[in-house]
């Protein structure tokens, strides 16, 4: 499966430089095999804020069920300071669905 992580900034937080954000996110998620995927816009129903700013995103390709479960548990236990993290799962041949 493929996991897509989207990072929505909380009020008062904005890292506009992608290299600075990459450093921050890759340190936060250092135990996972991440692939930088730039920025993306997501629909209002999935967002926690009203901002229309694009979200930074990472991919975890070929993730196992154990990786998915551990990622969600890790995010629950260790919220990322300044950001809401949205996780989407995509199985081959199936539409993407939000899991966190």
Instruction: Let me know the average pLDDT.
Output: 93
CATH architecture: 2-Layer Sandwich
CATH topology descriptor: Alpha-Beta Plaits
**What is the CATH top level name?**
Alpha Beta
Q: How much of the polypeptide forms β-strand, as a percent range?
A: 25-35%
Count of discrete structural domains: 1
Shape: globular
Largest sheet: 5 strands, antiparallel
Structural class of the secondary elements? alpha+beta
**What strand order characterises the main sheet?**
2-3-1-4-5
Radius of gyration of CA atoms, rounded to a whole number: 13 Å
**Low-confidence parts lasting 5 or more residues at pLDDT below 50?**
none
Intertermini distance: 15 Å
Number of helices: 2
Question: What is the β-strand count?
Answer: 5
What's the helical proportion of residues? 10-25%
**N to C succession of SSEs:** EHEEHEE
């Amino acid at each position: 499966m493929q996991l897509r992580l989207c990072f929505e900034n909380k009020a008062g937080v904005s890292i506009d430089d992608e290299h600075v954000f990459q450093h921050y996110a890759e340190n936060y998620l250092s135990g996972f095999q991440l692939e930088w995927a730039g920025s993306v816009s997501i629909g209002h129903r999935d967002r926690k804020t009203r901002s229309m700013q694009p979200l930074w995103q990472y991919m975890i390709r070929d993730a196992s069920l154990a990786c998915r479960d551990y990622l969600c548990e890790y995010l629950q236990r260790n919220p990322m300071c300044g950001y809401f993290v949205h996780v989407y799962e995509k199985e081959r041949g199936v539409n993407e669905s939000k899991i966190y």
